[in-house]
Structure formats: C-alpha cells, structure tokens
Task: structure prediction
Amino acid sequence: MASASTGKKGRSWFKEEFGNPERRTAYYMVLPSLLIIVVVAFFPILYGVVLSLTDSTISGFGSFIGIENYTEMFQDSDFLEGLSNTVIFTVVSVALEFFIGLGIALAINRAFRGRGLVRAAVLVPWAFPTVIAAVMWRLMFQSQVGIIQYVADSLGIISDPILSSRTLLLIGAILVDVWKTTPFVALLLLAGLQTIPGEVYEAARVDGANVMQRFFRITMPLLKGAILVAVLFRTLDAYRVYDLFWVLGNRELASLSTYVYEGVRISQLQFGPGNAAAVFIFVTAFLIALFFIRVLGMRTSVEEE
Amino acid sequence: MTERAEGSGVPAGRKLNRRDFLKMGGAGLAGAALLGTAGCGGGSGGTGQIIFTMGPDTDGSIAKLIKKFNEQNKGKLEAVHRQMPSSTTQYYDKIRTEFQAGTSDVSVIGTDVIWPKQFAPQNWTMDLSDRFPASEQQKFIAVTTQVAEYEGGIYSVPWCSCPDAGLLYYRKDLLDDSGISAPPETWDELKEMAVQVSEDAGIQNGFVFQGANYEGGVCNALEYIWTHGGDVLDENDNVVIDSPEATAGLATYNSMLTSGAAPEAVANWTETESLANFYNGDSVFIRYWPSAYGGLGDTTQTKLKPDQVGIAPIPVDKPGNPTFSCLGGWEMSIYANTDIEEDAWKFIAFMTSEESIKERVIIGGYDPSRKALYEDKEIAEATPVVKLAKDVLLKNVKSRPVTEYYGDTSLEMAEQFNSALKGDISPEKAVKTLQKSLSQIMEESK
Amino acid sequence: MASATTTKGATGRGSLNTVLFYVFLVAFVLVSVFPLLWIFKMSIVTKTELFASPPTILPHTPTSAEYAQIFGDPAFQQALVNSTIISTVTTVICLFFGSITAYAIARLRFRFKGTVMTLILAISFFPAVAIIAPLFIQYAQVGLIDTYASVIITDTVFALPLTIWLLVAFFRELPVDLEDAAKVDGATTIQAFRKVIVPLAAPGVFTTAILTFIHAWNEFLFANTFLLDPATQPVTVAIPNFATVYTVDYGAQAAAAVVVTVPLVILVLIFQRRIVSGLTAGAVKG
Result:
C-alpha cells in the first residue's frame, strides 16, 4: 500500500487515503479550519482580483477595464509615497530589530540576577495592542503635551513639530515598532541560542577559536533557522503595516495598506486603484515569502519528526 | 511516531469529539445569542415611528424638543432620536453605508451642511420644494438654503447650529495694553499685531488656527483664498482654483507661519489644540467657530473672561474688500425611501420652527438659522456671539465647494492646503495640482 | 539551559563587563516600561497641567477626574464590553477548530498534511488589507456590517494559524503512547481521554487561549472597516477616536489607554513563563 505514495494517477492512493476510516477522520478534523480559511480568505482575494480589473465601486459592480486601475495606481503619487514609506519602514525596522534583538539575546543568554524582571520588561511592550501603543506614542510626540517633542526641542535635535513632518513621523513609526517588537525578536533568538549546546563552544575554545570565530562559525549557522523565521515574520508584518501608521500619523503617514484602506473605504473615486493596490500587496507579500523559503532556504515547519 | 495512533483500536481522532462537541454547543449558543443581540442601532422602527438620526445630544435640547413633539402629537406620531457617532466623519460613513445598502429605516436625517449636495445626486434625500417654498426659504439666512439646492430642488431645511462660521477672536485686554484700539482688518495687520502684542505681553503665540490635514484645515485655507478674491469653483461648477488671487491667498496662509505670527505646530492642530492654546492664555488671536465664546468665564475650561475677548470678522487682503467666513452647521433632510414622508415633514416643520430653534439655541448656545431670531433679545443674552458676530453670520458666510464627490475633493484640498501652509510646496504648485485633480473629479460627476 | 556566552573570562575585564551588563539591563528595562509610566502620569494630572510647558515630571496636581470620566462614559463601557465579547468568542471558536485541526496534524497521519500546513502557514503571511473591500461588499450584502459576526469570522481566520501552530507544538510534546498506555491499564477511551490527555494538554490549551485572546483583543483593521456604529466598536477603534464634536481629549485618551493595557500587562506578567515557552517552542521546533 505504501508504494502507492508516488504518482497521483493511480487509483489506489485515493482508496488508501479516503477509504481508511482513521485517515478520513483526520481529514474531517482539518476540514473545518481549511474550509473557513478558503471561504473567508482565498475566495475574497480572487474576487478582489476580479474587482481590480473592473471599474466597480463599493456599491456596484462595474465593467471590465483591463489593467487601467493598475496604471492609474502606479502613476498615483500617493501610492508611490506609500510604497516608499513601506519599503523604508520594513528594511530599517527589521534590520534594527534584528541587530538589537540579537545583541540583547546574546547579552542575556546566561543566568543572572533579575532575569525574571528582564523577561517581564521584554513582554511589556509586546503586551500592548499596537493601536494603543500608537496612541501613547502619538501623545508623547504631540507638540503641546508630548514629552518627546519637548525633549527633542530642548536638545535642539529637531525644530519642527513631529506630527507635522512626514519624515519625522516615519522615523517615529520606526521607533515605535522597534520599541514594541525588538523584545519579541530577542526572545525568539534567545530561544534559538539556548538550543546550542555548551559543549560545542567548549570544543571550539579548546581548539583555539576566538570570540569572533565562535560567533560566526558556530552561533550564526546554528541560529540560522531561528533567524530566518524571525526575520521573515517581521518582514511580512512590517510590509503589511496599517494599524501603526494609521493611528500614529492620523492619516498623515502613508503605507501600502493605508493607501488601500483610503481608496476602498474613504474616498469615492479611488476604489479601483485601491483594489489594484490590494492585489499588489498580496502578490508582493507572496513573492517575499517565496524568496525567503526558496532562495534563503528556510524550513517551513512542515517536517515530520 | 504518529503511526502508532493508527494502530490502536479506536481512531485517535474520535476521542476528542465529546469535548469538542460540548465546546461547539457552547460556542454555537453563545455565537447565536451574540449575533442576535449585536448590531441593533437602537430604536427599531415601530409602525409610524419617526426615526431621527443625529450625533449625541450633549445638552439635552434634542430630547426636550422630541418630548414636546411627541406630547403635541400624542397617539398619532412618535419621534425617536437615534444617536449617531459624535465624529462627523464617522456619522457620514455610517449613514452613507446604510443608504448604499438601501435598507435603512430612518426617516429624518440631521445633516451637515456639506451633505445635501452629496446625497441629492444619489437620490437618497427627498426634494422638499413643494413643502418648503421660496417664501419660506427666505426666512432663513441665504447661504444656509443655498447649500441645500440641487438641480432646481431643495433638499434640506436649515436647523441649528447653523450657520457655523469662522470668526477671529482676539484678546481685547492685551491689544489695549499695546495701545491698539481696534482689531485688524487685513491679514497684514493681523500678522503685525500678532507679533507685536505677543512680544509686548510676553506670551507664547500671536495667532493660532486649525491648519492640519483635515476638513477643518480646508475651512481655514478657503477663508484666505476667498478674502483674496479667489475661489475653487465658479457658479457653473468649473474649477477655477488656478488663479493669481487663490495663489495670493495661499501665500498669505503660508506667511502666517513664516512671519512668526503663528507657531509651526498649527500645521497639525485641529480644534482641540488651538482652542486649548487660546483658552490657556497662550495666544493673542485665534480663528475659531462661534462655540469658543461660550467657554469664556467657565473656570473649568479657561481662566479667560468674556470681557477680555473680542470678536472680529475674518481679515481681508485689502481694506474695504468683503470678508468671508467658512460655513458649517446642521440641517434636516428626509430619507428618500421612507414610507412616512408626511409624518417626517411634520417633524421637520416642528424642529425648524422659530420656537424650537429658539429653544435649542438658548439651551445649547448655538446660532439660529432664521434671520428673525437675530433680533431676539433672549437669544442675544444666552448666546452673546449672536449679537457680536451678527453681521458676519447674516451676510458674510460662504459655503465650501460641495459637489457630488466632495469627499474626494476635500481630501485633495486638505492635503494641498496643508503642504502649502507648511511651505513644502509653493502656492503656485498647490493651485496647479488642485486645478488638475479637482477637474478630474468634476469630470466624474458629469 | 544556559549555554556558553561570548563574554570574556578574565577577572579585570569581568567586573567591568558585569557593571556594563547591569547598566545595559537597567536601561533596557527603563526604555521598555517608560511609555506606560509616562502615559499613566498623563492620565492622573489636571488638564491645565497636561498642557504645561515644560512638562512636569511628577504630577503636581494629581486627580482621578479622567478615570471618573471614562468609567462614567457609557460609550467607553460599551467599547470594553464589545472588545471582551469579540475577543472571547473568537478565542473559543479558534480553540475549537484549532484544537481538532492541531490534533490531527500532530498525532495523525495523512497524505496531504504538507499541503494543509502550507495553506495554514500562508494565512499568516496573508495581507488582510487585500480583502477588506471584497469582504465589505459581501458582508454588506448579507447584512453583517455593524455586527460582531463580521469581525469574529474574519479574525478567526487570521488567528487560526497562531492557534494551530501553538497547539501543534503542545500536542507534539505529549508522549506518543499515552492513549494506548492508559487503555492497556484498563481505562476506557473516554476515561483515558479525560484523565490522561486533558490534564496534560490543559496547560498548553490554556496558554494558547491567552495568546489567541491577546491577538483578538489587538485587532484593529477589521473592526475599523466593518463596525461603523460606535455601539459595536471595540476599544482599539474607540480610543483613537476619543472625540466629542470637535475635540480630542488627551487626558481621557491616556486614561483609557492605561485602563485597556494594564490588565493585559498583568495577564502577560503572571503567565510570562508559559507565554514565553509557548511562543518559542513553536518557533524553535518549527
């Protein structure tokens, strides 16, 4: 029976899978989740693709217009602004979170007094709903009541009101994201570090390897799996950023996702380009994930033990 | 490892069924109960109930008037207030979605002045021409009925607070100390006075206003454009924003920051920040709506007293030119698909009568839309701003350029005006960009 | 479990390292916690002090007025109720579907397991914003706009990968022959299940419930899109909009932020060990 595992053309695999009552049970058990996922996520995206090829609005289905929405979108300066903000935000915040997170993980990868306190401090920013964190930081950036605006003004670092400047807002958003998520990245990397047995380092030290060599030849390769997982998830999260930009910037800060939202829910005439952007985000996110998995060789956690 | 499970007698999967069945039952019941209870907006339309949508009744005037109406029409008619979001944008979003779905049970809508011209083209509101003839319309301030007109019909009745209009408040006491006896008439005078008096008095800011990238910013900027002789649309709804006058207006707008009269932060201030600043005594001048006056003397809100503050019309570019204030405020419409048109009209007639408007104005400190009420002594006492700003409110209020797709128009204007204010782009570039984008939008509504 | 670190062993440099290390730690803790403390301070001062420049470090005029205001505000209370209902129902549904799916994946063998897991993984990469327009249209057609169901259904889909991922990791930890061993000892299937599986799986399920709840509580995009009526909006939508007709109330916003966050923080701190092990178990074991 097991030999029928290859070749889906043979009929016997079908019987083996669905004829077997236990296997059938397994399929019944996963079916509800799959069903809801397909119905609520995958059908709508197909519908979204169809919509993006028409001149529909939120209230009526329109006629087919080919890729007009896409050309309009690529020429829209708001879209380009959202795209560039998103790319900058993604690259910078993920890089910062990774490096700082790695540093933190390395630094606290040992027993010390106050470890519980540190772990707690790590989790506090993570426990905040993103929206509430954005509200909080926005209050701190605000020109009249904001402590950060005040301090930055006094130190002469900036002279503009933070909330008026799109550049400063973007920097602020990166700051908030790093504050909120670095601890989490550190945690993931720390867990990865802790799976590396101490003997490996001992052996290396005995062989005369110095700190740098131990780090690059042992730590990094063994950590690769955890790093890729952390970086991929963080990259996709940052790429999809919406909550943070929307609430922190109060509509002043554009990302790809806020462009979609504005187009399909706020304005009346931008539904088409908004939808086109929705499809654009979907396709590019998929490509990014594919890149990580195929090119960078990330395991997709499917392996049987 | 998992192969073992398949080797045992009973399939491992079945074992979870009982627990999950219980969970499913529980979740199902909970879900059903919640789905049922959620989503009622309050006040289901019983037979003949007149559902009136409006934001929160912060001073109780709506409840009082509705009670009166229900008593007068006991047994025949009943009106009920369905509370809408306090944020006008959210209210608009919600009511628009209901209209698009076509299943709304509302009858009377409390409508912002910029909505009639957006709802009418979609056939969501009723033409009230036969019930609200020109002879009646004349009793209201002209601009308040003009905003309700569309293709020869009229789609809402002005109510209150209406008109809301931009006014220039100033610290009389500080101007006196600096030897200035009259408020500024032109923008240049305002700039000079703002800088000079704030220095003399040693306070933070000369002039504050709402310059952020939102609807309020549009109102502020339009006042500069209008007082310089420019406009966004002409009488035939052609886009005329690309003009030397409009450019000059935006240049003045930007100069408020560059001259130091206003702090840079106003470019992201809305009503809250600007009013807080003025109420705190940190600014000599503020451009604000009539409601700012009501807070003076109330120590929980501000330490300023009414006799410290004066009201003036919005400045102009050259002496003698007409002033313009941006129009805000609330009116009443009838939903096109309602079954109880007659009853809905009775309600509107009641709420917009002289008596009702007067009562609401006195309770809430609003402006009346009926011209006659500006002579009323009781109102003048309850809402001093009505007396102080009478000329402006009666004659110099102008409406924003509302058309079918005003939502998009507003977004474009808000962004360009804000960028021009901050100096990120030149006024010329701003008006040219707007000429192009607004023309495209106007094309869509043809 | 602590493995060797990369710090040096020499004593002279050792104590300097230790000092630096603790300085770094203190700084780290402060940075993490400071915003919450500052916002708390903002929530307990009067409005005048709130706008004072320069800002005061310690409150000069402490007041509980802001908290009285928000707790007396029916709209805020309603928002809290909405958040609680939506998050709880989502969590229950996710646990239900998630646990049976996770059990099948972790303990049973079937051919298309790889495909199933890829599909589930794909949802965690899925940009939800891409489908808000199609979903809005469809929900509007069946009258689900402004109901909890619209948000619950949608968020269940996007919370499922997390739930399943965590539960798979927990189920995989259970000894393989558990059910068999119990039966060999004479237990019936149900008894084996109740007395053996449930107690062992309970902590894992419990931790998953907490994390799923936090995820659902955090949700903003769907609530912002599908819930237009403030009577149905959860706190994530209500708090940024803390507005009367014209104004935004900073003090009240700060107080509301504190009220909404502190329980979450306490919850997370109490269960920190479980949470950390749950999150990292899934990540490291893949």
Notes: Chain C touches chain A through 105 residues (CB under 8 Å).
